[in-house]
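in:
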């Protein structure tokens, strides 16, 4: 028996945040390590605070960068066919779904407009 699992909605959103959070954590950790090493090599004094000041700063930066990256990635999930001219669907973009896109738009163009549709009478 074939079963499918729908992962749209909140599961996909949670997965995006988890993966992006891992990416931003690693990036932020590596960058902070190299900044710390560069500052200590230049004999710049890094203030040491007791408690959770630096971990809290790191956590806030991590959360802000994660949310920012997810929002940028979601905005980029648009219609990537938009900038491609219609006459190129059958050319170099045919293998990337251009044939299906061309057939789909051609079928929509052949639909009646509704004004001269006889079913309304």
């Amino acid at each position: 028996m074939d079963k499918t699992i729908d992962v749209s909605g909140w599961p996909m959103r949670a997965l995006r945040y988890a993966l992006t959070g891992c990416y931003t954590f690693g990036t932020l950790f590596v960058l902070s390590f190299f900044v710390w090493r560069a500052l200590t090599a230049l004999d710049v004094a890094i203030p040491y605070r007791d408690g959770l000041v630096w971990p809290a700063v790191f956590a806030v930066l991590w959360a802000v960068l994660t949310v920012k990256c997810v929002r940028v990635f979601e905005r980029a999930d648009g219609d990537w066919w938009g900038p491609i001219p219609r006459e190129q669907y059958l050319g170099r973009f045919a293998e990337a779904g251009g044939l299906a896109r061309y057939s789909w738009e051609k079928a929509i163009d052949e639909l009646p407009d509704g004004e001269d549709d006889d079913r309304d009478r």
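note: The chain has a mean pLDDT of 77.
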